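User: Hey, my collaborator sent me this sequence without any context and asked if I could get a structure. I don't really work with proteins. Can you help?
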Amino acid sequence: MMNTPPMKAIFGTILSALLVAGCGGSGSSGGSDCSGSGSCSEPAPAPTPEPAGPECAVEYDSTFEVVQKVFTDRCVQCHGAVNPSAGLDLSEGKSYANIFERPSNQSDFPLVYPGDTERSYLYSKIIKSFDDSVVISGGSMPPGGGLTEPEADIIRFWIYNAAPPDGVMVQGTDEVVTDACLADPEPFTIEPLDAPGESEGRQITMPLAILGPAGESETCIAVYEDFCAQIPEEYLVPGGGFFFYDTLEIRLTPFSHHLLMQMPAAQFSGQFVDPSEFSDWKCRSGARDGQACDPKDSGFCGEGRCATPMEDSTACIGYGPANGNTLATFSGTQQPHFYSRNYQGVYSIAPCRTVLAWNLHAFNLTTKEAEVAAQVNFEFANDRRWPRQRLTTDGTSGLGNFGIGRLSREGAAAYTENTLCTDVELPQGCFLTGASSHNHRLGARAWWTDSKGVVFYDSRLYNDPQNLMLDVPIEYSDPDPTTRTFRFCTHYRNGIDEDGNIDVDRMSRSSTRPYSFFGGEGGCEPYRCVNEGVDRRAIDCDDGIGNLEGNDAACDSSPGAGDGFCDGCDIKGGITTQDEMYQGTLDFFCPD
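Assistant: No problem. I've predicted the 3D structure and written it out in structure-token form, which is a compact way to encode the shape of the chain:
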């Protein structure tokens, strides 16, 4: 009933799709120790060290080679070169061409859709073994026992990062092959989206962004778009400046935490904001790179774009003219590939004449400069009976519906976990069509339940959240508001794993939160130890001074050892990935 796509399990979003029956095998990755050993003491002579073992048991030049190892160990017994089951050969040298954007026999989705686990049929079949709620024909792959969690996760991670045939992803691979050496990670790309036909839709593109090596950035850049004259008249919103669409598809190079598309908020009420209110328009790239330009002259910059300067800017807050005309988000994505199709008869609108600000929050974990490109496809809405609406959980302060204020008061303390929940009421007579969520790295799980307590949305990956679209919208017409009340919850863990063990890599820490977006005292005041290998979580190391530093000596493994580190603090709400967010959304439409 609500499985397009179905709910997400441990490693990612699950699809209503089927892979041809697979066959499991067993394999192990052995290997010798990567280092020799020896000891020396005086006055006795040092013993001769044992010969060093090989530096690596195996070497890999790409993450896909690790994916292929999973196929070889677990799948080729049935999906091998000789009489492959259902014609799917996953043997080395054949598998990539047989799965990448290749159609499946029993699904509308391809086996692997770059950047999109929700529409990758192969991944749906694999993840079935982790979640019995997945609706597919037949059993999971491999039958009789699924992959290990790291094996399944490396396939998800590879697909999420555009499923390249070569290149090393910067995380996840070593969990599958612990005895391996990997080539240095390289910046990678994703095939751009094909533009829809002129009578079918419109594509817009983000100016090319350059990311420096080994860093994180959040930037804002504005361009002027005016393509209303190219939109067929039947799809233009009366009054001008907007058009109707029902399908949205976004693809960008997989370095992003998010990509937001924003426009002046005044345009939502029909007030056009002239691009002259924004300053310093210059050609970006091309033969006239750096020259001043008129944003309304689309041809002046040639192959480049006329744009405002790309500036460091969190969510484009304060970007643009200093006249109080703030920017508002009208679309965006948290994934390298995002797809959303409204229920039949439901429409959305987007601007065709506007100053369009692109807010890109991206990571480059390689040691080389990287490029980020993005394309956004809108498909025109022919059936326009009801506008698409969205209901959000709303924070009591801070930045609106991201719940920043509440998190700052109620987020989990160091070495604890906490769950925040909010109830929202769907208007009477409306139809629920979908749900989603947004949190950051310390949000272990986000879920929605209906009025009967049934969980119908469950997301466990902050950087690849489930985007639930119901096959059949559910009507809520009962006048009793309790039957139309939904509960959104997010569970946070701060410095511990699901078993309660210390996990300082997933912790709110002062050293990684050196400033506060809201000003004032800065990031967070540490009061808990984060010593590696020594359990000092019960020690209070607060130095009593508001200086974003703690009493490291209190954390020493023994008095005077000098190995203590006071760095752990409470979860706080904020808009960087070192802060947290708390947001749930419900999509719906109302016939009247």
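In plain terms: The longest strand covers residues 215-226. You can pass these tokens on to your collaborator as they are.
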